[in-house]
Amino acid sequence: MFKRSRDTGQDSQESKIYYASQSQLIWRKFIKHKLAVFSGLVILFMYLVVILAEFVAPYNPNQRNTYYRYARPQVIRFWSEDGFHLRPFVYGLEREMDPVTLRRSFHEDPNQILPLRFFVRGYEYRLLGLIPTDRHLFGVDGDNVVYLFGSDDLGRCVFSRVVYGARISMTIGLVGVFLSFVLGLLFGGLSGYYGGVIDKLIGRTMEILRSFPQIPLWMSLSAALPDHWPIIRTYFAITLILSVIGWTDLARVARGKIYSLKNEDFVVAARMAGTSEPRIILEHLVPSFMSHIIAAITLAIPGMILAETSLSFLGIGLRPPAISWGVLLQAAQNIHTIVLAPWLMIPGVFVIIFVLAFNFLGDGLRNAADPY
User: Fold this and answer.
1) What pTM does this model have?
2) CA distances from 355 to 39, 164, 369 (A)
């Protein structure tokens, strides 16, 4: 009796697999990749922070406080000399000057305990661009400051600037990959389906674009942007440049897949039924390898982010007063600054985390794309 019930359970599980759709099989295999699932949660959390950047950041990213120039990061604590505290706190910062070098520096004062308050009032903004408010996730009382990532040469909160910088650095990858997705499927689909002269023309164009060294090509195209352009226009121009350069990888994948599938029975049947060629490409050929496209897109986003960061770091991408991770890393270009204020390299840590998370997520999607 026990053996029969066990066999029945196994049959039930097998029947679920046999009758599962392609998307259900992909999802079941994906959730088994624990690192990919965790990376996906990390990415979702970071994008949530981007959406609520004004709420999460305790200070205006451009607010200056020259008294706290190059203030060291403050550590969130629960233990002090008096014992355990239920409410998290930070020690206040005390400035001192070296009598020999005359260099100002900061150290934490254990006698000054600053409890962290949540949903505090601060500078005014519009939540989601719609709701006017002045509430922020955390802060401290009075004129005291909380610099979790320290401050820069103008006394601006690095934590707030990193949060705001993520808005550009993390979205330029999405916008750029979307444009590359459209261009790659368009030209790759035309090349693979029609072949002949169109295939040769598009193929030679892709080879020419891929033959150029990327960094000099980015530098030459970005240097052509006028200095007087506003930040938004420069942002979209750089996104367009990255997309124009980056569509060739996806186009090669689309071209190969469509070329191998265009003479399959289901395509021939659709063609004999009078289906138009654009509809055959979009409704029959592209969905047949959509899982591979999703994996390719996921792996392409980190490349876009690294490209924007590299351009901005070199000073030929986004420029101040724009705030991106690459722009913030410009302050850490010289050894003198790194020695005095190593916390200015924190934006680079978030670049590494975000890129690794997308790579792990793409690896999980790529494995799950072939559930059989």
Assistant:
1) 0.81
2) 10, 18, 21
